[in-house]
């Protein structure tokens, strides 16, 4: 447990390069090459975190200012993923998420029920989140453990399912996204994309950063678009002129810098991913291995970020007019790019479809987050989380995912029987995807 706590405190910029260096040596990569690859991953992640921090540190306060200026008030406050992760890891149950997730990952890899080797250890907080909610609902520690195990299986399955689409769209060869807030978006995007393909007129709307730039000239350039969107958000937040222009420059910088940080990270990941697949091909002919990474690798894509920035003020409007919603979007407004990262790959980077899909996703997420609020509030109190006077809290990203509704809902209603049903379903899907479907293709 002390080692796990040290890893969590060190953060991905430290333990991920260390883990990949050791993994590289196991794969018989030369020491110097493995060290350089791991170092580049650390540099890339550091740069990526700096750029994401630049965005969230500036977009978050702007979104909060919009909430205050427009006098929005709902009964439950969205505390955002940082608070949700602290609550999830803040309990004895949540602290077991990493060893459970890693052990299960190894077992599933050995028996061939997943292709994803998840090195993104920090993001096991997503399974700790659902485990903590079921424990809050049932007060059954063992059921919380089972919930985390079943949720981990869902994440591995969704990561494997979406990996080919993600790799093709983003050019991230050998990468999958076993990230609890992003992976469920793949399943949600499929029927939306199918429906939009069958609506006359709408099916022909195709906005990409390239087509937008072609039609709008300099105003369609990603840097200029970032500037304009940032200025609009700053104006809606009723900032003064200096702060409006500053936010515009920052959003513009994020659109330009994010892809370059991802390129650095991929420079380090590529030799390790290639060596891993070579080893798998030798030991298990016909099988592929995906390196499971944070969907932060995709959030900097121009279409994703542009659509996400548009959806920040739209999300507040949806929250006000949506019947049955009790959650005020707040902390996770800056996390919208993560919610859309996998969906955007299904939509082929079509900004119009990403915005439409995002509106549907946010509406559904607000409903689910409203339902989950009482359980998260109980879990927060058990983790001694400071709610700053709020009587009810929720979280838009993980709290609004359909996987959370499925797992926690059945776990709450049917206890062990509910989790068993979800477990059998996902086990069957993993067998279909990695045993039956693979042989046919």
The largest beta-sheet arranges its strands as 5-1-6
Number of DSSP strand runs:
6
Encode the helix/strand succession as letters: HHHEHHEHHEHHHHEHHEHHEHH
How confident is the prediction overall: mean pLDDT? 87
Distance between the termini: 43 Å
Describe the structure.
With 441 residues, the chain is mainly α. It is built from 17 helices and six strands. The radius of gyration is 21 Å and the shape is globular. The model has no long low-confidence stretch (mean pLDDT 87).
Blueprint (SSEs and pairs):
Blueprint: H1 2-10, H2 12-26, H3 31-69, E1 76-78, H4 80-89, H5 97-110, E2 116-118, H6 125-138, H7 141-170, E3 175-176, H8 184-196, H9 209-216, H10 222-236, H11 241-283, E4 290-292, H12 296-299, H13 302-321, E5 327-328, H14 336-346, H15 351-382, E6 393-394, H16 402-414, H17 416-440
Parallel strand pairs: 1-5, 1-6, 2-4, 3-4
Helix pairs in contact: 2-3, 3-10, 3-11, 4-6, 5-7, 6-7, 6-15, 6-16, 7-16, 7-17, 8-14, 10-11, 10-13, 13-14, 13-15, 14-15, 16-17
What attributes does this structure have?
single chain; 441 residues; mainly alpha; 3-stranded parallel sheet; 17 helices; 6 strands
